[in-house]
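Worked Example 4.2. Consider the chain below.
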Amino acid sequence: MAEADANTQSGEAQQQFIIQKVYLKDASLEIPNAPQIFRSEWRPQVNVELNTEHGTLDESAYEVVVTVTVTTKLDGKTAYLCEVHLAGIFTIGGFDARTLDGLLGSYCPTILFPYAREAISDLSNRAGFPGIVLAPVNFDVLYAQKQAGQQQRQAIEPQ
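Applying the procedure from the previous section yields the following structure tokens:
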């Protein structure tokens, strides 16, 4: 306890990570070939697109958004297109810039993704299709790939 007080008194900021809010920011579902599509044998071809973004709300509050788009086709015709924007507001403080970027680019999306999976499954099920269960996503790997790509682009660009 004395050590924590000493760090605070010496000007070091305490690290803080708080989930303020998790919410469904936007959701859409399209069934362009209904009702004929319901008469087809269900052998779907599924394409999943995933995106994350984050922004600053104030000096310690951030919004992180995970976007999941699922396009399901039968015999080349779109059965349904479902898109979910699942967001969270996080209070984050006391971390260096690199760690903060990692929290926003990997840790926060990892927290939000299960909610997005549930929303996608629920929407597809309510549309009359079998609920889709998306595989877990390793956002640490995606974040590392993004960082590596940025480093490669910086190395190629003339100074």
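Strands lie at 16-30, 45-56, 61-74, 77-93. Confidence is low (pLDDT under 50) at residues 1-11. Compare this with Example 4.1 before moving on.
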